[in-house]
Amino acid sequence: MEVVEKISHLMHRFHSEAAEFLSQSETAESFRIRWLGKKGAITEIFEEMKTVAKELRPEAGKQIHALRQKVESFLEAQQKKESEQWIEATIAARHIDPTLPVQFGSQGALHPVTLMRHRLMEIFQRYGFSIYEGPEIESDFYNFSALNFQAEHPARDMQDTFFLADQSTPLVLRTHTSNAQIHAMLQEKPPIRLISPGKVFRVDSDASHTPAFHQLECLVVDRRISMAHLKGMIDAFVQEIFGSDIRTRFRPSYFPFVEPGAEIDVACTLCRGKGCQTCSQTGWLEIGGCGMVHPNVFEAVNYDSEEYTGFAFGFGIDRMAMLAYGLPDLRQLFEGDVSLHRQFPLYQ
Ligand code: DAH
Fold this sequence. Notes:
Layout: H1 3-23, H2 28-36, H3 41-48, H4 57-94, H5 112-126, E1 130-131, E2 137-139, H6 140-143, E3 171-173, H7 179-187, E4 192-201, E5 212-222, H8 227-242, E6 248-253, E7 258-267, E8 284-293, H9 295-300, E9 309-316, H10 317-325, H11 338-341
Parallel strand pairs: 1-4
Antiparallel strand pairs: 2-3, 4-5, 5-9, 6-7, 7-8, 8-9
Helix pairs in contact: 1-4, 2-4, 5-10
Bound molecules: 3,4-dihydroxyphenylalanine (DAH).
């Protein structure tokens, strides 16, 4: 079939689907995917243009554009309608009267991430850790090179990074709280026993990743610190949060600033290890990374790596909150819906 003929078929199909759409309960999103998505009808016909004879292209192009415009404006109208309906339904369901005067100070609750941060800080303080805050805007030295990430090393790609524009020396929004290790070690002499909670940033967004998220870093440096201390400390705080029957697992892994390094998994708290959608049927959930501080890191901060050893670990606070409070999607934490927070009064 000639492409021009196909376009006119598509135009007919669009009109009949649009009419059907109005009488059925299809969502604008699935309509959009069918027409404008990666494998949608419009995208496919655009692809086909490559094979169309040169002299037919201008006319065919014009028609496709006309069709696309129709689809887009139809969708825009439907999306607007859907969001208006959503607002009305939400207001009706929650009995909100937007005309009432605002009552200041009478309601509110701590955010689940804040609650989890407080619980973690309380646990670690009990074990004698101090709390150290690191900066969110960071130089390459603290975020990468002092942590033994070599320039151009692919390990940097694991942390897809926001760089600040127009800086003569590169500045980044820190990709992890591990930068606090370097600040602390340059300021203090061993023994060190600290945690550093805070915000971190990466170019990442899906059901289990948000571009800004929260981590907690832990660093211990002293004489004769071993992997046994590391495992003991991780087990201790994980069990305080999730219950004494929750198991942890360490999988060997690579992080430039530790050797040996491992990923920390906890038994899935939703299915208690049986396998479910949240843990992709594995029974385990990864919460962070850990290991023994690499001698090159000690060298970067002028510590004697013959005299001192240390362990470090870092994990996502949001992930912990999601697991402890049974939230299926991490993004719920950042939608700003206060009805979520109100469910946690017991933890305040
Ligand atoms: N900084 C790592 C990340 O964000 C997590 C991490 C791994 C922290 C190993 C550590 C560690 O302290 O030892 O992916």
